[in-house]
Amino acid sequence: MDIHEYQAKELLSNFGVEVPPGALAYSPEQASYRARELGGDKWIVKAQVHAGGRGKAGGVKLCGNDIEIQSACEGMFGRKLVTHQTSPEGKGIYRVYVESAVVIDREIYLGFVLDRSSQRIMIVASGEGGMEIEDISAERPESIVRSTVEPAVGLQEFQCREIAFKLGLAPSLSAQMVRTLKGCYRAFTELDATMVEINPLVITGDQRVLALDAKMTFDDNALFRHPQISELRDKSQEDPRESRAADRGLSYVGLDGNIGCIVNGAGLAMATMDTIKLAGGEPANFLDIGGGATPERVAKAFRLVMSDNNVQAVLVNIFAGINRCDWVAEGVVAALKEVEVDVPVIVRLAGTNVEEGQKILAKSGLPIIRATTLVEAAERAVGAWQSDLAQGTKVRVEK
Ligand code: ADP
Ligand code: MG
Predict the structure, then answer these.
(1) For the sheet containing 96-100, what is the strand order?
(2) Nearest-angstrom CA–CA distance, 60 and 96
(3) CA-based Rg of the chain, rounded to a whole angstrom?
(4) Ligand 1 pocket, 212 CB below 6 A?
(5) In CATH, which of 3.30.470.20, 3.40.30.10, 3.40.50.2300, 1.10.1740.10 is domain 104-229?
(6) 395: which DSSP letter?
(7) pLDDT band of 391, cuts 50, 70, 90
(8) Is the predicted pLDDT of residue 353 greater than 90, yes or no?
(9) Whose CA is nearest to atom 19 of ligand 1?
């Protein structure tokens, strides 16, 4: 789960990371009011969307008076911000963060990520702040400092000082840098984050180390341990298909293809997507309905998959181990009676009670295309969709 910059700043500041004074606004009038409350004579108005690259896309504006704040807000509220990190449709702007502008001496990139190969938290830093890390690693790879944390002992002071030294910070800034790094590390581990990124971390004109931007991503599977983090979820920033799935307890990722997938088990779901591609098709989604594929879950899955207007065929691939194929088949039949499915449905069942399952599908009288192997199922799904296309039928129209 992602959160907004202002939320990440608040969390990180609770762990000792210094941030400039700022306040949130839901309207242009409130933004002006917030600026007056903050005082000073220069403010940064920042669109709160779950994406970076806002500066270049017009989502971060320096303002010197009330008129400038109003015009910055008018260009943001209710619009969609398209950055290189969003989809082409962009993300809606419903909140802005008003922050005191600071004088920047130096910008640094700082990121905490999970490094899968070393199975450790890795700190990535660079003196080339302000640029995205992908650009830094392409253009100035030698500027990147990496340091992994040994989990048994946690982040050590000497490691922090070494990072500060490698970034070329003045020794007088070392203590502030240690505090910042340790704060981020504690926030990362204690809140079950999977990423903390501060870009830029700056040295101000008056020699303070401040986080001017902040991004945090959390492990969805650990959110139950952090109700205060779960509350920060902003559905306006998510793919509506994925929010609906999360609300229904299904694990779904929307994709651009047109063959909807309903599968039990994440590994089998991945294999199903691969096989569809191998057969010349494109999956419309990843969907793992979990182990106990009850009729209700199957119906929910059909409803979710069919809510995507691009779907032109649905492939159901269930392996029944603990489950039973006859039960799953009953679920599919019940779901198809309940949910309007106007595209070809291909069902492949394997495992316990597979013969009984096949009989139930055959007897139902529903136009289900049956397959025994995954390859056959994928080929039939791609074939069914292509023949529908060739006949000019069943090409779904926008609802
Ligand atoms: P994004 O990464 O989405 O473009 P940032 O929050 O990093 O957004 O802002 C873009 C740039 O704007 C920063 O790199 C920094 O140079 C400048 N900036 C952001 N906040 C402030 C601030 N409070 N004072 C001065 N400059 C700022
Ligand atoms: Mg940034």
Answers:
(1) 22-25, 96-100, 43-47, 60-63
(2) 9
(3) 26
(4) yes
(5) 3.30.470.20
(6) P
(7) low
(8) yes
(9) 212
The CB of 60 under 6 Å from ligand 1? The reply is: yes
The domain covering 240-390 belongs, at the CATH homologous superfamily level, to Succinyl-CoA synthetase domains (3.40.50.261)
- Ligand 1 centroid from CA 19, angstroms: 12
Average pLDDT, the chain: 92
Q: Give every CB contact of residue 253 below 8 A, 6+ residues apart in sequence.
A: 242, 285, 286, 287
Of the pLDDT bands very low, low, confident and very high (cuts 50, 70, 90), residue 392 is low
- 252 catalytic residue (yes or no): no
CATH number of 21-100: 3.30.1490.20
Ligand 2 center to 368 CA (angstroms): 51
pTM, to two decimals: 0.79
Q: Where are the domains of the chain?
A: 21-100, 104-229, 240-390
The active-site residue, picked from 5, 107, 128, 197, is: 197
Residue 132 CA: nearest ligand 1 atom is 2
What integer is the mean pLDDT of 179-206? Answer: 97
